[in-house]
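Hi R.,

Here's the input for the NAI complex you asked about:
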Amino acid sequence: MLFVSRQFAAASKRAFSTSSYQNAAKVAVLGAAGGIGQPLSLLLKANPTISHLSLYDLFNTPGVAADLSHINTPAKVTGHLPDNDGLKHALTDADIVVIPAGVPRKPGMSRDDLFNTNAGIVRDLATACAQYCPKAHILVIANPVNSTVPIVAEVFKKFNVFDPRRVFGVTTLDVVRASRFVSENQDSSPLDTKITVVGGHSGVTIIPVFSQTPGLQLNESDLKALTHRVQFGGDEVVKAKNGGGSATLSMAYAGARFTNSLLDATVNGVKGITEPTYVKSDVLAKDGVEYFSTQVELGPHGVEKINGLGELTAYEQELLQAAIPELKKNIQKGFDFVHKE
Ligand SMILES: NC(=O)C1=CN([C@@H]2O[C@H](COP(=O)(O)OP(=O)(O)OC[C@H]3O[C@@H](n4cnc5c(N)ncnc54)[C@H](O)[C@@H]3O)[C@@H](O)[C@H]2O)C=CC1
Ligand SMILES: O=C([O-])CC(=O)C(=O)O
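And here is the predicted structure with NAI in place:
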């Protein structure tokens, strides 16, 4: 919870000096009753910048909202179901929409195996966002992120409301994991171990760039083992949960970190915040890759500046080359899904 308390300390300090920034944001969570949705909503309820937390799911959101609403932080919490225009009410005036709605993996599945179910869910929720909160920042957690982000973008384009500064694939869990795994290997503090991860959010498309962490020296076997662990960290949890789903608690932590960073940049006027995120990007335009995750500077309108790849070792170049065809395939699949009708 350290990032939470650090951020909230900063936010509450700012709240005294710049009152117009205080408690100003409505955040909607779609899929809020699920494994990620509930702990994510709990962490967001703790952020004093949020004035209204609206929770939408197919079931159980009135209960989750009632429960969270007893916590003595400023956010009003409302729960919405599909009946009575629930989605419309959940989304209207939202500044940020976080989407963990969708099915998780079971052992033996790839993230792409979720496409058939989750593509339609994300398309329909994106359609509602384009109608009811076209200026909101959309944070996509639902897998396969490499394809669901292009789906949101194509739906928004259909409604003429696409702004590439406001559609994000949440890849924060990859850097959270990388930091933890490397700190275990190096016996260092995970809070001070910053690892760059670029690419997408599945298997070989996740590219840790350990060479960019100052002072980090890995021998070849550690380098390969850690690379594999970061790329396939999600599988460890899927296997351990043994049919009970995938990462939920670590994902909620990562999703809250990203949402809180975006709130600080967009609502609290904090400058210079960077987070890795999968966005429409020119970084690999020459290779025909339209969406890519690198470190992104966040500003008042969302994406402020997309950082490049920086220097890569020969090994990291190899990882990048392996990721490119898979990423292009995943992106095309999302695009085709929206344009198939
Ligand atoms: N981006 C990332 O790093 C990560 C992404 N994920 C993905 O997040 C998604 C959610 O995972 P969990 O929360 O564990 O699943 P879950 O099954 O526990 O929860 C999903 C929730 O979405 C709801 N839902 C389904 N269709 C909906 C619709 N049309 N409208 C609103 N809500 C709807 C369900 O009712 C359920 O409550 C999965 O696709 C999973 O693969 C999971 C971990 C990390
Ligand atoms: O592995 C999964 O299916 C869920 C996920 O995206 C992750 O944990 O990184």
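One thing worth noting: The CA atoms of residues 53 and 77 lie 5 Å apart.

Cheers,
M.
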